[in-house]
Structure formats: C-alpha cells, structure tokens
Amino acid sequence: MSAYAPEELLTEVALGKMDAMERFYLMHQRTVYRYALSRLSDPFDAAEILNDVMLEVWRCAGRFEGRSAVSTWLLGMARYKIIDRLRARGRQVTTGAEELPEEVEDLSPTGERVLEKTQEDQRMRQCIDKLGPNHREVVHLAFYEEWNQEQIAEFMQCPPGTVKSRMYHAKEALKKCLERLMTRL
Amino acid sequence: MSGTVDDASMKDQLPWLVNKSLERDAQTRLEAALSTDPSLAIEHEFLQRVRDAVCLEEGTDPGELGWRRLRRQIDAETQLRSGLRQRRTWQGFALAASLLLAVQVVWLHGTAPDQGAYEPMGTSPAIGGVLLQVRFSEQARLADVQELLQSQSLRVEAGPGVAGIWRLRLQNGDVDAVVSALQRNKALITFVAVEH
C-alpha cells in the first residue's frame, strides 16, 4: 500500500501532513480495532477507541520515541483508553492478579448441523468472546498479533508466568465452553 | 516426576509454537515431541483452531468510514487552533502598539521640561484637570478596579481605546503620587502615562 515505514509516516504526521495521517490510519486501523474489539466485545466501542487512539496519534506523533514497535505503541494507547472506558462503566479492569475463568453462559442450541470448519470457528469465536477480559487479551495478543510471551508480559505489565497462567486458564475455559456447545448439538 | 514436569512445560509452550514465536531449539524439540505424544498433538491442534478463530474476519472494521470521521474531527480541531493562533497574533499586535504608545508618551513626558515649556509654579502639577492613560491587566476584576479608582480620586473619561488604553481624569490629588501608586499596583495596572 505504501513504501513508507510506519516510523517514517509518523515523522510526516508530526509535521502535520494529512496524507501521511491517512496512510498511517489505513495501515494500522485494523490492528487497533481488532485489539479493542477483543477487549470490549462491542464494535461501536472498539470504533470509538480506534478513533481516540488515532486522534492522539495526530496530536502527539512527535512523542513516538521508537523504543517499541509502532503497533505496540498504538496498542499501549488503546489499552489505557480501554481501561479508562471500563473503569468509567464500573466493569472489571486488569488488576495484575490472577483471575479465574469466568462462567460461560449457556448458548442456544444450534440444531442439527454439519460440523464444518467455519461453524467450528464460529463456535470457537463465541467461546472466545465469553472469556474474561484478561484471558481474551492474552489470546488475542498471542494469536492475532503473534507476540511472544515476554512481549505480552511487558505490554500487560505482568510477569511472564502470569501470561502463561492466563493462557492456560483461557485454554481450559475454551475447552469447557466448546464441550457445552457440543453436547447441545 | 520429571517426565510430568516436561510434559506440562511442553504444553505451556504450545501456544508459542502455534504463533511461531518460539526460539528455534525449543521449536525443534516440541515438534519432535508432537510426533510421538498424541495428547500433545491434540492440544496443538486445539490451539491452532483457537488461532484460526481469533484471526477469523468477523464484521467490518471502520476502514474508510472511520478515516472520514477522524478527518472531520482533525479538521475541526485544526480550525479551532488556527482561530486561537490568529487571536494570539492580534494580541501581540495590540501589545506592540501599546508599548509604542508608552514609549512615545514617556519620551514626550520626559523631554517636555527640558524644552523650556511653561510650568505652573508650585511643588506639584495642576490638580483637577489632569488626564491619565492607563491599561488594566487582563486578570483585573471590576470591583478591584473600581476600588482603586475611588481611592485615587480617578474617574473614567473614555475607553477602552486602541490596545485597551483607558483615559482617566484625576479630579483631586497629586499627579506624581497617583501615578506612582498606579505603577506600584502591577496586579491591576500594566501601563500608566500622563496625558499632555
């Protein structure tokens, strides 16, 4: 789409160049949006977070110091905005303490259907959406962003052991959720 | 015992094998174990399904629509900033003009006696009809200004004019003393000059 590296685009954005901002937005909007969606499970809220993050990029592009990847910087901003939003609504926020897998709600039976891969994916997605926020975040960062354990730990400001533990609990909760769905088929 | 620990440790490493973030050695070791340990292979397959579902494109991201919305906000913000900048520029001009006026007044005031102009006899200048030019601080409150004017027997004659200059009439009192009092009150007065 563009020959520019994200860092170069940010330099242009810091100079107030709108075309650079547009390229930057289109280059990174999906990453930020998908991350926000993974935490908030609401497309409208996720779009709001994306908008807020990109507005901040426009205002403060010059503050990017290159100490992390651009996508990490963006997701860091998104993370704080999500935490603020959840706090404002009185919902659970990341505490750093280990959380237990949240109880998975019963879902309506889907009837007799052939188990195609797409449907399996859909069911898995349903179960992922039912995970607690910390578990969903670890799963998203590992499998969508493809970050390693240390990167995730640094980003979530917790020890690598906590990442490992959250991944384990997320996995167990997903298995339990899928089992329930399968027994209803 | 150690076999169990290794098995648990390998299972813990599987997500990082799936997302390809493991170091080469650990990756090789784990891949070898996958071919010999069916439970590990099942776990690996499960995590691959999790990854596939996470990467599944569901719904639409804001894309172009999101950009247009952001663009409108940026434009509105830019306009606001530009307006503020223009206001600041105008304020700069006003300050420069008032400084110029002040220099002019001070120069006139300072040089007038040397030019042998007429001066009434007595220790203090004329009382009652003297006009002062004053500029009030932007932070000055009306009540404070009124109190100051009353305490110095000053009355507003006209204003504010260019650069926020007010003309005050000294009705009663010593001009030099009043001017000094005004100059000392920097919280309210930013400029004082006697009008000739």
Describe this structure in words.
The complex is a heterodimer of chains A (185) and B (196). With 185 residues, chain A is mainly α. Chain A contains eight helices and no strands. By secondary structure, chain B is an alpha+beta fold. Helices cover 59% and strands 13% of the residues of chain B. Chain B is built from six helices and four strands. A four-stranded antiparallel β-sheet of chain B has the order 2-3-1-4. In chain B, a hairpin with a 6-residue loop joins strand 2 and strand 3. In chain B, helix 1 runs parallel beside helix 3 and helix 2 crosses helix 3. The longest helix of chain B has 49 residues. Chain B is rod-shaped, with a radius of gyration of 40 Å. At the A-B interface, helix 2, helix 3, helix 5, helix 6 and helix 8 of A face helix 1, helix 3 and helix 4 of B.
